[in-house]
Design goal:
The chain has 79 residues and is mainly alpha-helical. It is built from 5 helices and 2 strands, in the order αααββαα. A two-stranded antiparallel sheet has the order 1-2. β1 and β2 form a beta hairpin. α2 packs across α3. The chain is elongated.
Length: 79
């Protein structure tokens, strides 16, 4: 965030990025090293986390078919 280098407050950064102040207050320490915010590291961490989440949530067609079948059974029991 070049905003930090120009001395802008977290509230100003949040407004400029259209994010909540809380998100900015967590983002800065999480992606800082020895007191310096590292935007490249932050982007790499976010991208890796997103890819991991996508891999973890993908299901095989067999699993999806079994889930649909179970949901249909549950729906019919409640009718």
């Amino acid at each position: 965030m070049a905003f930090l280098q120009t001395g802008r407050s977290q509230a100003e950064i949040a407004d400029a990025r259209n994010r909540s102040k809380r998100i900015i207050s967590r983002e800065i320490p999480r992606n800082s090293f020895e007191g310096e915010y590292e935007p490249c590291d932050a982007q790499a961490t976010a991208t890796t986390g997103r890819e991991f989440t996508e891999m973890a949530t993908k299901q095989s067609p067999e699993v999806l078919q079994a889930l649909r079948k179970m949901l249909r059974l549950v729906a019919h029991q409640k009718l």
